[in-house]
Amino acid sequence: MDKVVGSAEEAVADIASGSTIAVGGFGLCGIPTVLIDALLEQGAEDLQAVSNNCGVDEFGLGRLLFAHRIRRVIASYVGENKEFARQYLHGELELELTPQGTLAERLRAGGTGIPAFFTATGVGTQVAEGGLPWKYDTEGNVIVASPAKEVRRFETAEGEKEFVLEESIVADYGLVRAWKGDRHGNLVFRQSARNFNPLAAMSGRTTIAEVEHLVEPGEIDPDDVHTPGVFVQRVVPLTEEQVTAKQIEKRTTRPRPEGVSS
Questions:
Q1: Cα-based distances in Å from 180 to 20, 108, 160, 223
Q2: What is the DSSP letter of 220?
Q3: 33-51 residue pLDDT tens
Q4: Which side of the chain, N or C, has fewer Cβ within a 10 Å radius?
Q5: CA-based torsion, 46, 51, 52, 57: positive or negative
Q6: How far does Cα 122 stand from its chain's mean position?
C-alpha cells in the first residue's frame, strides 16, 4: 500500500478545527516543521496540542501558538517560549503540565489500546492530589484546575507502595518527522530525534510522517524499523531544502584557545 501523498498541504488538508494533534520532537530536535507550517497555512484553529514542549517563539509549534490557533496544550516542558508563558498567564491558553515519563507512557498506552495505567510518579504531589492551575482568567485567577486522581496501593518488590492512575492519550492526528521511511509507512528515527516521535505516531488515529529520505519497501531492514507502517497513514517526502532547514535551539561555544587561528 503506497501511503505517499503529493505534499504536506494535501496531507493536513482534513485536520479540522478542534482536533487533538500529537506532535513529535524534543526542543527543536525531530519536530515536523513542514507539517506544522502546512497546518498553519491550512487554517485549522482551536487545536489541542500534545507534545513534550511547544516549540520556541515563532518556530515549530510556536508558530501555531503565535497565531492563536492552539486552545489547549498537554506538555511536560514549556520554558523556552515567552509567548506561551504570556498566553497562559493571561488566560488565553489552557495548559495541562504532565511529568515527562508519564506523558510518554500516556501516548504509548493510547497507541496500544491501554486506557489507563498506574505510576508512582506524582504520588504525594498536586499531580495526584489536584489543584494544578490549568487555566487563568485575565486577572490571574485560576478558573480551571487539575482534578484529583485515583491513588491505590500495590505490592512491589520493595514492599507496598502508592500509585496514581493516569489516562492514556489518543490523538485525532499524529505529526512526526522521520530520518528514513518507505512507501508503506515504516519509519526510522535518527539519534536524538527518536524521542517523542514514535510515541506521537502510535497515539494518532491518523498519523502523518514527513520523511527526510524516502526509500522503497524492503530497503529498510525490519530490525531497524522504529515505527511499523501499521501506525502510519500518510507519508510526505521532503525536499533537500526542507531537510536541511533546521535550527539550533541554544548555540553554546567556548573561547578559542590562545594561539589557535580560525
A1: 26, 21, 45, 14
A2: S
A3: 999 999 999 999 999 999 9
A4: C
A5: negative
A6: 21
Query: Rounded to 5 degrees, what are φ and ψ at 202?
Result: -65, -35
Mean pLDDT of 6-19: 97
| Residue pointed to by grid coordinates 498536586 | 126
Q: For residue 5, what are the CA distances in angstroms to 132, 144, 183?
A: 42, 40, 10
Give me the domains of the chain, ranges plus CATH numbers.
8-115+168-244 (3.40.1080.10), 117-167 (no CATH)
The whole-angstrom separation of Cα 144 and Cα 93 is 11
Taking the alpha carbons of 40, 41, 46, 48 in that order, is the dihedral positive or negative? negative
- The string of DSSP codes covering 17-53 is TT-EEEE--BTTBS--HHHHHHHHHHT--SEEEE-SS
Of 47, 183, 23, 170, the closest CA to residue 111 belongs to: 170
Residue 144 corresponds to which cell in the numbers above? 480551571
Q: Is 63 helix (H, G, I), strand (E, B) or coil?
A: helix
pLDDT in tens, 139-181: 999 999 999 999 999 999 999 999 999 999 999 999 999 999 9
**Cell 508512582 identifies what position?**
120
DSSP string, 119-162: ESTTTTSHHHH---EEEE-TTS-EEEEPPP--EEEEEETTEEEE
Asked whether the whole model's pTM tops 0.85, one would answer: yes
- List the Cα angle 40/244/188 in 5-degree steps: 85
Q: Using alpha carbons, list the distances in angstroms from residue 248 to 29, 74, 100, 188, 194.
A: 8, 24, 22, 22, 17
